[in-house]
Design a protein that fits this description.
six-stranded mixed sheet, seven-stranded parallel sheet
Length: 1114
């Protein structure tokens, strides 16, 4: 997997105003010596008296964490972001500097600072800016930041000349206060030479009377055309015939309303000039356009650079087509036109028409369709292959003609079009000497993809019919000055198809200068990483004097090596791209994620978002395991190689809200999988992939269904919980979907998690244990532990209350080997804001409390069970917000040597336990909030190549199992964007352990000590020598095989070709007794790859000799 995140930094001159600070708050940093800092929910004060005293003295009303979502790993050297707090005052303070000094003197505070006022890169001060979503959506605010506005630079203005956009429409109220300063003034008609042709007289804008002479002074064919022309009425004033002729004025404001003038609108054109041309001679028809061609021609002849046509015709006209060709060829104008507003031109209440509209569909006319907010296309605007670009056109605030109503909403491609026209004008103002093809390429080639470009309207796809994408004026402006260098293709050259620790990795990179951007000279591309486990010995790609034009590519290669003990996962690298384009320097950084994996071909599975633990099981009974996992509303099944299990994926039409449980529900000798959805449906899938709804009810299932033979008839029942507003329900159903007698059981409080099932008191009847919580006005949160037998009857001693909240799932185990079951779970006590308490209760409930364990942070996930140190006593394993992985023996009330283990971030899942390396000792795995999979030996030391680092979010328990049937385990990791498989190339042991989510495939949370081995010297010693079959066979390029040694001896393993010659000696050393695993990568003694063919592997150990055949296929 390669993930590319673009971070562009430009070399531009930007001036800043003086610093601005909030006068009603301070930022403070709680000193690292304060280890238990907290804030009371009752009064907003802290547990530090000196802070509280000063806050009261200076009228501070609250203190809150600055970044509640900051992780403990969010550090800059020794400064942790989660230790910053904001102190808020009741009013603005004139002495904010003095207050900062006073707080700085406190022992508990190491830093006290004023809080700067944060503003976007550039946000105009126009009063309606926050409502002008379209400008932000096309990145106008970012574009404006490329000018030094505070230093006097104005977007749209030029050193010489101006860019003019004409609005041929139903007139233009050119005196509108948000338009008048951007109205084009034809100084060719400035008879008196005072530099203006309009003036403000007694508060009213008028033509300069000294300039009116009834003569065409500038020779453009129009008399006294000071701000445009009325082509319909043939006079010099484009003012609307009546105030209800609003459309042209509304359009004009979206081209170039005066921006940063403190009132009303802002516009993408910012300061480009507006030329009004009236095309309507019907005073009684505000939507009538009678003289469009005359108006367009007048605009061209008066010198307009861009002509905006926010109107449509459904009829093709040969003369019209020729007309617009003339406007393009002879006058060098860019015409921008609306694609139309639905089948009946009805706007947002209409439906998309797939037929062309004119003049938008004519050659050399820019056609614009309309979008809504949030990058949506809502199937009313027209689409066609002639559409060039999309822009926002829904609920657009526009200038208005009435004196008491200066602004009004507009909907339609009429308003997407002027947004685009203004953007083209802004680009042209930067490169006025460029031809129109170049200017338009800057706009079209920099447009952004938006997902709705691929949707359907009225059953018909709009793909390819909405132009190049959504207008992005920031990229378009950027493209007038700079190149844009991006890696477009990244491939890895290695022998295995994935990058493993210890590999030499060649990374082939293709760098492209994006279409529409300026040429790039002196291109240099440098790869770097801060990970010390990597050595980059070919870190640079040079352009070697080549000029990289827009759309052209440069290829090169980086070469690096990783240490054998490098951590697995997504390793961050940085690609630094630099270049020169004319007088401008370009600098860009791209994040590159290099996946380091002990992988299996066919994985990862991309484009899935996994929130529930995956399951690995052999559902179809073919002796090879499959992986089952859910993403959104789909249940996936994957075989070795990433292939779909027959019949999968299965789509259930609603969010799958639980993990899967696995068991033989109906006693036919084959397992089924069970899962539930957010809308209360329980599904069962059999080995053929046939899916059945067995239960449907209101309410979302919690966590995971539990399978257990409640009635002891040989079939498994399905047990699950769900919540409603008034409380929770415990269900128990037969595999046929019928309720078990006595169920469902209603609970008058909300259930916290899935149930656990075991025979609590050894009376031969299974019991279901759940935790629920309720608010008590006197005591606060109150948890209850309920135990309900297989008949739905509460057991004696239950429920019992606990003062706390947020119970984890319950774990059941006979800790003291007295044939009775202990109940284990964790809560947040009411007397703690964030601490956790792990409770151990006896089978009789509250009266039989055994022990508890307090932590500094809440305990997350669930509680696992293992004799982690092999001392014969069981330990409880858990993680949480205190950032430790614990192994607590509740009988001895202690943790083993080397424990707890510092994770460096909050633990978020229950640990799982397995003998990964067949040494008789257990290893422990958990996930932390830093998106790392941690894996530890029983001594507390990291397993080789761990932690596994993910750049994608992780929040589910990994699965462990032998996916490829080769004797070693794979780790199945689900992220929010993919499913990954890590192949641990060490033969695994089969010691009973809490090796999967909730302890077993039935998900019942019960650890059966009768299966557990607690001796520290547990180990399988083979009784005789053996050499096993290799896997895979045939293979390419890697295969592996196991062998068994009944005693310590010297071992020699060799590879031979078909002629008996030794190709490679894999092992020649003394080895201890046990089962071993060896890998061959199809290379000879010289390190060269061998040819396709038959090979033999041979073992010599003691007096044992044996040879087997294998086939290499390339």
């Amino acid at each position: 997997m390669v993930r590319i995140n673009i971070l562009c930094s430009l070399v531009v001159s930007i001036m800043f105003a003086g610093p601005k600070y909030h006068a009603d708050r301070l930022m403070v940093y709680i000193d690292d010596s304060v280890t238990d800092f907290n804030i009371s929910n009752d009064n907003g004060m802290t547990n530090i008296s000196e802070i509280n005293d000063l806050m009261r003295d200076v009228d501070a009303i609250s203190i809150e964490q600055w970044l509640p979502n900051a992780r403990p790993t969010d550090k800059n050297q020794h400064v942790s972001l989660d230790r910053y707090y904001v102190i808020q005052f009741g009013s603005s303070k004139n002495n904010i500097n003095r207050l900062a000094e006073r707080f700085d003197r406190l022992d508990a505070i190491s830093i006290s600072e004023k809080v700067p006022i944060v503003e976007p890169a550039y946000v105009p001060n126009d009063s309606l800016w926050d409502q002008l979503y379209g400008l932000s959506q096309v990145k106008a605010d970012l574009a404006f930041d490329l000018w030094d506005i505070d230093g006097g630079e104005i977007p749209g203005q030029m050193d010489d000349g101006e860019i003019v956009v004409a609005i041929p429409d139903v007139g233009l109220k050119w005196s509108h206060p948000d338009l008048v300063d951007n109205i084009w003034q034809n100084l060719g008609e400035d008879l008196d030479g005072d530099g203006v042709v309009i003036e403000l007289v007694d508060g009213v804008w008028e033509f300069d009377s000294d300039d009116e002479n009834g003569i065409d002074d500038d020779g453009d064919g129009y008399i006294d055309n000071f701000v445009g022309y009325d082509a319909a009425m043939e006079d010099n004033d484009p003012w609307p015939l009546r105030l209800d002729h609003v459309h042209g004025t509304k359009v004009a404001g979206n081209v170039s309303a005066m921006t940063n003038n403190g009132i009303g609108l802002a516009s993408v054109g910012y300061s480009v000039k507006l030329m009004g041309v009236n095309a309507n001679d019907n005073i009684n028809s505000p939507w009538s356009l009678t003289h469009t061609n005359e108006a367009v021609l007048a605009a061209a002849q008066m010198g307009a650079d861009i002509i905006n046509c926010s109107w449509v015709s459904s009829v093709y006209s040969g003369f019209d087509s020729s007309f617009y060709q003339v406007i393009h060829d002879e006058y060098d104008c860019i015409v921008v036109a609306a694609a139309g507003n639905g089948v009946d031109n009805g706007g947002v209440s209409d439906t998309t028409d797939f037929n062309p509209r004119y003049p938008a569909a004519y050659n050399n006319v820019v056609s614009v369709t309309a979008m809504g907010d949030n990058d949506s296309f809502n199937c009313w605007a027209n689409v066609h292959e002639t559409v060039d670009i999309s822009a926002p056109g829904e609920n657009i605030i526009c200038a208005y003609t009435y004196r008491d109503t200066l602004y009004a909403l507009g909907n339609g491609t009429s308003y997407a079009t002027p947004l685009t026209a203004g953007a083209i004008a802004l680009v042209k103002s930067l490169i006025p000497d460029a031809d129109n093809e170049t200017i338009l390429s800057k706009v079209f080639d920099t447009a952004e993809f938006y997902p709705d470009m691929l949707r359907s309207c009225s059953g018909q796809s709009i793909e390819g019919l909405v132009g190049a994408g959504q207008l992005n004026i920031h990229r378009a402006v950027f493209a007038t000055r700079y190149p844009e260098l991006l890696p477009t293709e990244i491939t890895y050259q290695n022998d295995e198809g994935f990058n493993s620790p210890g590999d030499t990795i060649a990374i082939d990179v293709t760098i492209q200068n994006s279409l529409g951007f300026e040429p790039a000279d002196s291109v240099v591309v440098v790869l770097s990483t801060i990970d010390s486990n990597f050595n980059i010995f070919s870190d640079q790609i040079n352009g070697n004097g080549i000029t990289l034009n827009g759309g052209e590519e440069l290829t090169g290669q980086f070469i690096l090596t990783s240490n054998h003990d490098a951590s697995l996962g997504d390793i961050p690298f940085n690609i630094h791209l630099s270049a020169v384009s004319g007088d401008f320097s370009y600098d860009n950084h791209v994040d590159l994620i290099v996946p380091l994996s002990l992988g299996i071909l066919g994985f990862p599975i991309q484009d899935v978002s996994i929130h529930n633990p995956p399951t690995i099981t052999d559902l179809d009974g073919n002796n090879y395991s499959e992986i089952y996992f859910s993403s959104d509303s789909a249940m996936y099944g994957k075989w070795l190689g990433g292939l779909d299990v027959n019949g999968y994926p299965l789509n259930v039409g609603s969010q799958i809200s639980t993990a899967t449980a696995v068991g033989d529900l109906d006693g036919d000798g084959y397992d089924e999988i069970v899962f539930g959805t957010s809308d209360g449906v329980v599904y069962v899938v059999n080995r053929q992939g046939s899916m059945n709804v067995v239960y449907d009810h209101q309410g979302s299932l919690l966590d995971v269904p539990v399978l257990s033979d409640l009635d002891q008839d040989g079939d498994l029942e399905i047990i699950f919980t769900s919540n409603f507003e008034s409380g929770g329900i415990l269900h128990a159903i037969h595999h046929t979907g019928d309720d078990v007698t006595g169920f469902p059981v209603e609970v008058n409080s909300l259930i916290d998690a899935c149930p656990a099932v075991a025979d609590l008191d050894n009376d031969g009847v299974l019991d279901i244990i759940i935790a629920s919580q309720n608010w008590n006005d006197t005591l606060g949160w109150e948890l209850s532990i309920l135990a309900i037998d297989a008949s739905g009857i509460p057991k004696a001693g239950f429920p019992f209350p606990i003062q706390g909240r947020k119970s984890t799932s319950i774990t059941l185990v006979d800790l003291n080997n007295d044939q009775n079951i202990e109940i284990i779970h964790a809560v947040v006590p009411n007397d703690s804001l964030s601490g956790g308490r792990l409770w151990v209760w006896g089978h009789e409930g509250e009266v039989s409390s055994i022990n508890f364990f307090d932590t500094e942070g809440s305990i997350n996930g669930g509680i696992s069970v293992a004799d982690i140190d092999g001392n014969g006593s069981l330990d409880l394993l858990f993680t949480g917000e205190d950032e430790y992985l614990h192994a607590w023996d509740p009988i001895a009330d202690s943790e083993p040597d080397g424990w707890p283990i510092d994770l460096g971030a909050s633990g978020i899942t229950e640990p799982i336990v397995v003998d990964m390396d067949n040494d008789g000792d257990l290893e422990v795995m958990c996930v932390s909030s830093s998106n790392e999979v941690h894996f530890y030996h029983h001594t507390g030391t990291h397993y080789d190549n761990f932690p596994y680092i993910s750049q994608d979010s992780l929040n589910s328990v990994p699965a462990i199992g032998d996916l490829d049937n080769d004797g070693d385990n794979e780790i199945i990791v689900g992220t929010f964007s993919d499913l990954r498989v890590i192949d641990i190339v060490q033969e695994s042991g089969d010691r009973y352990a809490w090796s999967t989510y909730r302890g077993n495939g039935h998900r019942d949370g019960y650890f059966d000590i009768s299966f557990a081995t607690t001796s520290s010297d547990w180990k399988n010693i083979p009784s005789e020598y053996a050499l096993y079959d290799n896997y895979p066979n045939p293979f390419n390029p890697t295969t592996r095989f196991s062998y068994a040694l009944p005693k310590n001896t010297r071992v020699k393993i060799t590879i031979h070709d078909i002629n008996g010659r030794i190709v490679k000696t894999l092992i020649n050393e003394n080895q201890d007794a046990g089962k071993k695993l060896v890998t061959w990568n199809a290379k000879n003694e010289m390190g060269l790859s061998v040819a396709t063919g038959i090979y033999f592997y041979r073992i010599e150990a003691g007096d044992f000799r044996h040879t087997k055949k294998m086939v290499l296929l390339k």
